[in-house]
Amino acid sequence: MIVVDTNALMMPVECDVRLFDELRRLVGDQPLVTPEAVVAELEKLADGNGKEATAASVGLDLVDRCEAVATDADYADDAVLELASHPDATHAVTNDKPLKRRLLDAGVPVISLRGQHKLAITQP
């Protein structure tokens, strides 16, 4: 399973990335999960104004393509790390640099933006 972070779901608007096509290109068809804390973060961001709110609204539409999973963590980054540390998790998707470092330190391969409209995998 692939764990998807908040900013990954916002990439289609913010970075003009075809997120699901890129994930299929990199890792094939795998189940996508996102923590419920990520859904809550998207809802909060979508209530604002501007490009970030628009990206979050699109992210909320896209989150339907993922399974929302409950975690012990309330903070989205901690929840992503919790799910990505599960034995069934193969990758996490994020552009958040501090979270990416935490994931790599935990031995989790990270899929993130590389170049203008492409994703790439960074191995721990």
UniProtKB/TrEMBL annotation:
Residues 2-115 form the VapC9 PIN-like domain. Coiled coil: none annotated. This is SSU processome protein Utp24. It comes from Halomicrobium zhouii.
